[in-house]
Amino acid sequence: MRVSVDSALILVTGVPVALTNLTPGLILVGPDRTVTALLSPTGGPARVEAAIRGSADTLRLTVAPLTAPAAVLVNPGYVTLTTLSPGNTAQLTAVVTDIAGKPLSSSLATWSSRTPSVATVSSTGLVTGVAAGSAIVAAMAAPGVADSLVVMVGDALTPPGSPIALALVGGRSFGVGKVAQPMAIDVVVDLKAVPTELLGSYDARLTWNAGVLRFDSTQAGSFVFPVVIPDTAAGGILRFHATDPVGATGLQTLAHVWFTATGPGASSHVLSLPVLSAALTSLDLTPRLLVAPGGATIGP
């Protein structure tokens, strides 16, 4: 744009106007003289000087504070549902922050489900179970700025129902850790989709990346204290089992397995339950058992 005026303030073409950006930290003046606000955590007054033949004036602007999303944290860290109402829905929230950790609007997060045939998610983060299985639900606030969790849906209609097993890190499907720091994997069984049976006994097998995690110890959860077979733990395999003749229902933590992170990388931990039986009836619960995916990333 080229604009000039004569002494009578009549527009005259062909005389260049020199624009000077006096606040380059807040705005950008393009070659076509378009003024664009830059991302700024504080904002503030911006100025552009326009000069012609020794005369000048200043354009004054106000740039509102605006920062880019740098992190997203989805809560809760995992969800278990059933195919029956009211247990078939859960509300998720997304905490969006900038690079300084300042909270931003949660509306910046866009929700999606990788397996909508198992669980759908609305634009506001309401998850609905559709069919038995697992689905990863993600919230993305910007390219490369996202968080996700595993949604497990159990079938409560087909007897005896679907027990759900999870190996959680810090109560989350996908956890993080740092080298030389302790980390616990919580082995959990949820019986909300098993309405008529009690958990009586199990045999569990947990494997992991031995180059990333070193096994330290096992701590009892809400179920009876497990019998641990640690002879292969150095190679990344731990076996443990327990029996409760009375039985337990609801959400049961079978064990807290403690590690020390020894190197960066993926934990690659995998849980299996070759034996899962009901108390009193001794019914085998493994045919409809659902085991959740998950993992942890260890940073330096």
Can you offer a commentary on this structure?
The chain is mainly beta. The protein has three domains: 1-66, Immunoglobulin-like; 67-154, Immunoglobulin-like, CATH 2.60.40.1080; 159-300, Sandwich (Immunoglobulin-like). The protein has no helices and 27 strands. The strands form eight sheets. A five-stranded mixed sheet has the order 20-23-18-16-26, with no helix packed on it. It has a four-stranded mixed sheet with strand order 7-15-14-11, with no helix packed on it. The mean pLDDT is 93.
Structural class: mainly beta
> What's the helix count?
0
As residue ranges, the low-confidence spans are none
Helix content: under 10%
Order of helices and strands: EEEEEEEEEEEEEEEEEEEEEEEEEEE
Task: Kindly provide the name of the CATH class of the largest domain.
Answer: Mainly Beta
Q: What kind of sheet is the major sheet? A: 5 strands, mixed
CATH topology of the largest domain: Immunoglobulin-like
Spatial shape: elongated
Count of beta strands: 27
Distance between the termini: 52 Å
The neighbouring-strand order within the major sheet is 20-23-18-16-26
Our estimate of the beta-strand percent is: over 45%
The CATH architecture of the largest domain = Sandwich
Number of domains: 3
Rounded to an integer in angstroms, the radius of gyration calculated over CA atoms is: 29 Å
- The chain-level mean pLDDT equals 93
